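Hi support team,

I've been running sequence recovery on a batch of backbones for a student project. Most finish fine, but this one hangs at about 90% for roughly twenty minutes before it completes. I'm not sure whether the input is malformed or the queue is just slow. I've pasted the structure tokens below so you can try to reproduce it. Let me know if you need the job ID as well.

Thanks,
M.K.
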């Protein structure tokens, strides 16, 4: 048998061999066969250790700017204005050239030939509309609404006064030689009644019955005796006057009355008309104005008043009305059995709701302030110089003529005043306006009315330097005496009345001495002793301030009313206050609007929320709440709620008294530390309220501990 070559796998070869017979001899070892397939994978080994952190990647690139959004669609214009229109009629007939005034804004128009008027556009709101026409009863409505997008129609009906009620003032205006003065203007202090003298100098005014001062003015003539004071007119009464004007020139200018200013200065005139300056004293039979009611007190029943400090016993006042409705009071004293009755003809104090109202009666041709006073805020009656009316034994008397309104008060309350002393040495007043009018601060206006110019009317601002930086040096010394004197002249326009003292009773050229009047007056000038603008106040005034004890001699705050100028000067004397500031000398009218305005005390900006103070001081370290808190050391800032951080609370504490103690602010602007109050009490003195206990009234130590915790002990007073 043929031997097979071993080319197949060993298993096949073995099978074949087994079939053929016994095994032969072992052959030679063959070549190795190919490698078998790889075995299955073994189990996974343990996890390796974590790898090291890789390097930080590069910052990503900024994304592209987004596309601008699409403009929104235009909205519709809001309607916020309306129109006020109407017709003025007199006795039913449309009347031209009648002046219609919006007292809120000062805007005014004169009616057209058909009596029509229209104000537009007017912001929506409620308006105070006034119409005055000489000889007619005035019209006033304080609640005229104007709605957005609508027209309000206000038809105003004026009527000629009923002859049985209206009073008539007629007469003639003539020159010193008795020649008629055609074209002379005759006017009243109340109501704005005016008339122009005819060719023969005659005039006629039809007015509501009350008390008037009637004045006349003609170009080039001084008012002389043309001011007739206290023309008392009963219903239906006719009064004839002869007004003789005296020669004058620009050096002896005439007072013409505030009504002469109304046409050109309507906005200012409207503000002034409702101000306390214009309405401080009013006849009780005038209609109430926006300044407040004529009589604020509850005029009824009995009031019992006394003054133990002056030894005046209790006196009963019965408050009643005369048959014609005029208020009156009857004084009764049980011990003496006496009774006296007085008719009240004027209210003194405009009923502002914050201070007091007094009442004037007339005795022997002069005015006296009644011995009872109504304190408006506390709503209580108190005595006012009761010792002038009641003796220590209870018997009744009447005030001396030296205690009259004319001698004690009128120089600060009236405009165009002349004081004439009669044979009995009693002062009688003549004036252009009973209250404080335009010419009280701006001087006689006759030349200005003839030809309006800034050069022929006074302006207190004109005396003050335009830039007061450096007028007082950083060392506290006055560096520019002339500029500082000009600043004082501008301040004295207010200071002559907002201070306490007496007239200058010295002879011409002699040093000033306290005189007979309780206001600035140069007695050597005779009837026209008023202080002219630009003249130093010291020429007409001897100060007599009501300040706190000697302990507060430096920068002492005042304790009586109308002494704001006294405070300013007291602070300046100590090198402090607004009137001695090297950066800016602050004038009264920087903070107050002398023409009036709707804010308390005629401020230019609100003070309760610090808006007024920060209008200047925000640029000097008080730009935000954090800076104010750091300055006050109080944790919170809520000036208009809790009072925390309120500038006035610390720098203008309530120290003075008008009606009730502490109802007027100090005006030194100097902080009164509580240590002064504590030390005064320990010394048995009457202590001034301090800058802390206005809020912290519960502190037994008057706030000393609180003050020191925040600021440390104050420096000695002589170093302040």
């Amino acid at each position: 048998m043929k031997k097979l070559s071993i080319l197949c796998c060993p298993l096949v070869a073995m099978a074949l061999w087994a079939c053929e017979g016994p095994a032969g001899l072992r052959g030679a070892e063959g070549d190795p066969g190919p490698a078998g397939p790889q075995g299955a994978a073994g189990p996974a080994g343990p996890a390796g250790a974590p790898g090291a952190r890789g390097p930080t990647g590069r910052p990503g690139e900024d994304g592209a700017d987004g596309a601008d959004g699409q403009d929104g669609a235009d909205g519709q214009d809001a309607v916020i204005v309306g129109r006020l229109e109407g017709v003025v009629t007199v006795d039913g007939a449309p009347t031209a050239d009648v002046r219609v005034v919006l007292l809120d804004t000062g805007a005014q128009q004169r009616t057209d030939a058909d009596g029509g008027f229209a104000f537009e556009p007017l912001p929506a709101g409620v308006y105070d509309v006034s119409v005055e026409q000489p000889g007619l009863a005035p019209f006033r409505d304080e609640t005229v609404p104007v709605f957005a997008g609508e027209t309000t129609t206000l038809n105003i009906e004026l009527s000629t006064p009923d002859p049985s009620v209206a009073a008539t003032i007629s007469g003639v205006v003539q020159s010193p030689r008795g020649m008629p003065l055609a074209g002379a203007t005759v006017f009243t202090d109340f109501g704005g009644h005016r008339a122009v003298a005819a060719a023969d100098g005659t005039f006629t005014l039809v007015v509501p019955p009350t008390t008037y001062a009637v004045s006349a003015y003609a170009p080039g003539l001084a008012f002389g005796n043309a001011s007739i004071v206290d023309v008392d007119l009963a219903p239906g009464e006719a009064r004839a006057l002869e007004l003789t004007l005296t020669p004058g020139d620009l050096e002896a200018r005439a007072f013409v009355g505030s009504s002469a200013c109304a046409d050109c200065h309507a906005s200012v005139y409207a503000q002034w008309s409702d101000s306390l300056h214009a309405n401080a004293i009013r006849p009780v039979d005038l209609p109430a104005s926006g300044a407040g009611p004529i009589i604020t007190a509850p005029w009824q029943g009995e009031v019992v008043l006394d003054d133990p400090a002056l030894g005046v016993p209790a006196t009963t006042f019965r408050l009643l009305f005369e048959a014609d409705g005029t208020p009156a009071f009857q004084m009764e004293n049980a011990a003496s059995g006496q009774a006296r009755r007085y008719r009240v003809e004027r209210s003194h104090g405009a009923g502002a709701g914050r201070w007091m109202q007094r009442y004037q009666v007339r005795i022997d041709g002069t005015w006296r302030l009644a011995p009872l006073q109504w304190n408006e805020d506390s709503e209580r009656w108190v005595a006012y110089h009761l010792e002038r009316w009641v003796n220590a034994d209870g018997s009744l008397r009447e005030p001396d003529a030296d205690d009259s309104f004319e001698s004690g008060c009128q120089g600060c309350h009236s405009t165009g005043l002349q004081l004439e002393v009669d044979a009995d040495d009693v002062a009688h007043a003549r004036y252009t306006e009973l209250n404080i009018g335009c010419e009280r601060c701006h001087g006689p206006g006759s030349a200005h009315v003839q030809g309006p110019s800034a050069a022929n009317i006074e302006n207190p601002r004109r005396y003050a330097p335009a830039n007061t930086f450096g007028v007082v040096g950083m060392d506290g010394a006055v560096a520019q005496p002339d500029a500082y004197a000009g600043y004082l002249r501008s301040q004295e326009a207010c200071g002559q009345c907002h201070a306490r003292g007496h007239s200058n009773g010295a002879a011409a050229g002699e040093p000033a001495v306290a005189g007979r009047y309780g206001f600035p007056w140069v007695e050597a000038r005779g009837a026209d002793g008023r202080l002219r603008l630009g003249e130093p106040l010291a020429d007409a005034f001897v100060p007599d301030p009501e300040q706190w004890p000697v302990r507060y001699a430096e920068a002492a705050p005042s304790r009586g009313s109308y002494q704001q100028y006294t405070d300013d000067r007291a602070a300046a004397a100590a090198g402090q206050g607004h009137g001695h500031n090297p950066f800016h000398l602050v004038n009264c009218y920087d903070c107050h609007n002398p023409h009036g305005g709707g804010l308390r005390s005629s401020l230019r900006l609100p003070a309760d929320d610090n808006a007024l103070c920060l209008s200047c001081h925000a640029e000097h370290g008080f730009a935000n709440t954090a800076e104010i808190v750091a300055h006050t050391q109080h944790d919170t800032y809520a000036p208009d709620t809790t009072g925390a951080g309120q500038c006035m609370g610390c720098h203008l504490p309530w120290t003075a008294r008008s009606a009730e103690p502490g109802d007027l602010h100090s005006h030194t602007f100097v902080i009164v530390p509580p240590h002064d109050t504590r030390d005064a009490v320990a010394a048995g003195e009457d202590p001034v309220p301090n800058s802390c206990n206005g809020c912290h009234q519960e502190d037994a130590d008057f706030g000393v501990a609180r003050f020191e915790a925040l600021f440390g002990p104050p420096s000695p007073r002589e170093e302040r």
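--
Follow-up from support: It reproduced on our side and the slowdown came from queue contention, not your input. The radius of gyration is 45 Å. No action needed from you.
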